[in-house]
Design brief:
Layout (H helix, E strand, L loop, with lengths): L4 H6 L16 E6 L11 H9 L3 H22 L8 E3 L5 E3 L8 E7 L2 E7 L5 E6 L6 H8 L2 H8 L3 H22 L17 E5 L4 E6 L1
Antiparallel strand pairs: 1-5, 2-3, 4-5, 6-8, 7-8
Helix pairs in contact: 2-3
Family: Belongs to the P-Pant transferase superfamily. Gsp/Sfp/HetI/AcpT family.
Pfam family, one: AASDHPPT_N
InterPro entries: 4-PPantetheinyl_Trfase_dom (IPR008278), 4-PPantetheinyl_Trfase_dom_sf (IPR037143), AASDHPPT_N (IPR055066), P-Pant_transferase_sf (IPR050559)
């Protein structure tokens, strides 16, 4: 039995009507990941990757995120979720393979039970999701990855304002790296990169999403 996108979306509390309409800009879908999502729509390599985690919760979250991705992509592509094929670009960044190559750009971020998917018809896209929280070693990470000006501004803040600003910079960096197909170690203080447009979206649950186009 072939599973359609509407059936898969229902596992995440979504319907085709609740998904954003795609025009010229980037849109996103974000949900908490449920447990025990059926994996029938995944291909062999995805199932092998899930098994390789060795940890049941991590495997479930990986499986759920990939099922969600197939459900969302198939909605926009007008195909069956299981028929979607992927190729890899720089540093393993996934992209659509034939017969849907070039029809839609996407990126996925998964963190502690939440998943965000960014979508764009016209441009490559990168996304990162993080929970805004107190973080040990914040200044050390900032000194390595952020510009001198960003570090100066960050050090003038305290409390919640400092946490918010750190994760705004961090998610922007992660999303930008993913947009360009770079590893974080290759970033070289990209927080001041003017060639990309980064938007931030706060969720009421305390999570932050950055999308780079």
């Amino acid at each position: 039995m072939t599973t359609d996108s509407t059936t898969l979306l229902a596992h995440f509390g979504l319907t085709p009507e609740t998904l954003p309409k795609l025009a010229d800009g980037a849109e996103y879908v974000v949900v908490p990941l449920p447990q025990d999502v059926p994996a029938e729509s995944l291909d062999t390599s995805e199932r092998q990757r899930a098994t390789a985690y060795g940890n049941r919760v991590a495997a479930q979250q990986f499986t759920a995120s990939r099922v969600l991705l197939r459900a969302v992509l198939s909605h926009y592509l007008g195909c069956t979720p299981a028929t979607i094929a992927y190729a890899q670009q720089n540093q393993g960044k996934p992209t659509l393979a034939a017969p849907h190559a070039g029809q839609l750009h996407f990126n996925l971020s998964r963190r502690n039970g939440w998943c965000a998917i960014a979508l764009c018809r016209n441009h490559p896209v990168g996304v990162d999701i993080e929970q805004v929280r107190e973080l040990m070693g914040m200044e050390d990470a900032a000194a390595v990855y952020f510009s001198a000006n960003d570090c100066m501004v960050l050090n003038q803040l305290g409390g919640t304002a400092k946490q918010r600003r750190f994760f705004e910079l961090w998610t922007a960096l992660e999303a930008s790296c993913k947009r360009l197909g770079l590893r974080l170690a290759e970033a070289e203080t990209m927080s001041g990169n003017q060639s990309l447009r980064v938007s931030h979206h706060y969720l009421e649950t305390g999570w932050l999403i950055a999308i780079a186009v």
